[in-house]
């Protein structure tokens, strides 16, 4: 099990920050990468000609390592929503078909399909939040429903952001394939923590940002694209997406054919070498610790939370149904709107989400944080 990495962060001992699922603090090394990057932008004439291309590939390689991908199959993008919009442009969903999404899933894997449904002639079906918390069974039931329209796409998060429910992507991917449906995964709350192997999973698209669990900045995200989807038209038309458009050439538009691999889907103005290096450093740290060690640590912390709150009148999902790094407290009589403020007044931070309190520890948390949360929670909430 990974030990607490609090010493690598700028977190005072009296701060109990349990809100990585909203945004993570930046490690000191990531902060330093940002400062160095700002200095480079201050004196850009010192940059080598191949500096930016090296940064692209460093970040692409770091992202690929977290999900078991080849770097050539990963695109540099600014957000999950951008990636889903790219998928919407690349894929053609048959009229009369249906798209499956999760009820109250985050906007990114949902709104793109809702906005296209009327014009595209398909329907978007929300898988209702299961009373028993078993999202995987609910999705599989929806896929196999006999009286339903043909299934064209399953577009879901791998962990539900509001209740911490973890989905079994392998079983869902297999079921989607049997029905000839595409599979898109928003891995925002998974990449870098639970093990993901896109070569085994074989999704059409898998997308994640860096500002939450992989300890990076806002505005950087990465998209795995299966090879069967690498012949589409990008969301933006840029020079790097083409094989032969470059200012350094004597002929500017030398070759307008698209670049091979997922690079054709890279965002415009991708030269964010300040935040791109920050993202690479955070992802490399996560990869260095390893999924198993991280999951063991975070699972221990959330189990400790669940045990400590067992007789406090709140409910949590069964351990086998929730992600190891998110635990959401349900209040049978409703959660007080003042609870998060009362916790924050004690330097204890968690997030209200759809009537629940979401607690999301990361590698900088330790047993003292958990015990402090339980003590303060019982003081201000009961």
Tell me what the structure shows.
The protein has 382 residues and is of the alpha/beta class. Helices cover 36% and strands 16% of the residues. The chain has 11 helices and 14 strands. Strands 2-8-7-6-5-3-4 form a 7-stranded mixed β-sheet, with helices on both faces. α2 runs parallel beside α8 (273-289) and α3 packs parallel to α4. The radius of gyration is 22 Å and the shape is globular.
Inertia-based shape: globular
The total count of helices amounts to: 11
Computed Rg: 22 Å
Mean pLDDT: 96
Low-confidence stretches: none
Percent strand: 15-25%
- Topology as a string of helices (H) and strands (E): EHHEHEHEHEHEHEEEEHHEHEEEH
* Coarse structural class: alpha/beta
Could you give the order of strands across the largest sheet? 2-8-7-6-5-3-4
Tell me the major beta sheet. Answer: 7 strands, mixed
First-to-last CA distance: 33 Å
User: Tally of extended strands?
Assistant: 14
Helix content: 25-40%
